[in-house]
Amino acid sequence: MELPTVEQIRETAIAIDPKFAKAVARWDIEVGRDWQGDPGVFVIIVLKDSEAHRVWESRRDYKDRLRNRLWAMLPEGYFPYITYSAESVALDPEIPARR
């Protein structure tokens, strides 16, 4: 199985719940290695500050659905890591990037 492209991952994330996706300012997606050296796909969902309250209650369910979908797309041995950030936090140069 081939590793999906960043665009395929983004399209999958949007297709899971288009209403939720409207609250997203951007999807930061990177393929790399985790702290143990194992391969992973890192997805940071950056929520619009003005929309975060609308989807906050459903974020865990959405994250679970996205993780399950990514498990099916990724080659064996890859783990999907999914976190959230707020747009204002993601733009603040004083706050280190999360991963």
What does this structure look like?
Helix 1 crosses helix 4. Strands 1-2-3 form a 3-stranded mixed beta sheet. The two termini are 25 Å apart. The longest helix is centred in the middle third of the chain and has 15 residues, at 59-73. The protein is 38% helix and 27% strand. The chain has 5 helices and 3 strands, in the order H-H-E-E-H-H-E-H. The protein is globular and about 40 Å long. The chain has 99 residues and is of the alpha+beta class. The chain has a single domain, classed as 2-Layer Sandwich (GMP Synthetase, Chain A, domain 3), CATH 3.30.300.
From the structure above, extract its key features.
single chain; 99 residues; alpha+beta; GMP Synthetase, Chain A, domain 3; 3-stranded mixed sheet; 3 strands; globular
The helix count comes to 5
Q: Strand pairing plus helix content: what structural class?
A: alpha+beta
Which bin fits the share of residues in helices?
Answer: 25-40%
- Report the end-to-end length measured between terminal Cα atoms: 25 Å
Q: Residue ranges: pLDDT <50 for 5 or more in a row? A: none
The profile of the biggest β sheet is: 3 strands, mixed
CATH topology: GMP Synthetase, Chain A, domain 3
Q: How many domains make up the 3D coordinates? A: 1
Arithmetic mean pLDDT: 90
CA gyration radius, whole angstroms: 13 Å
Shape: globular
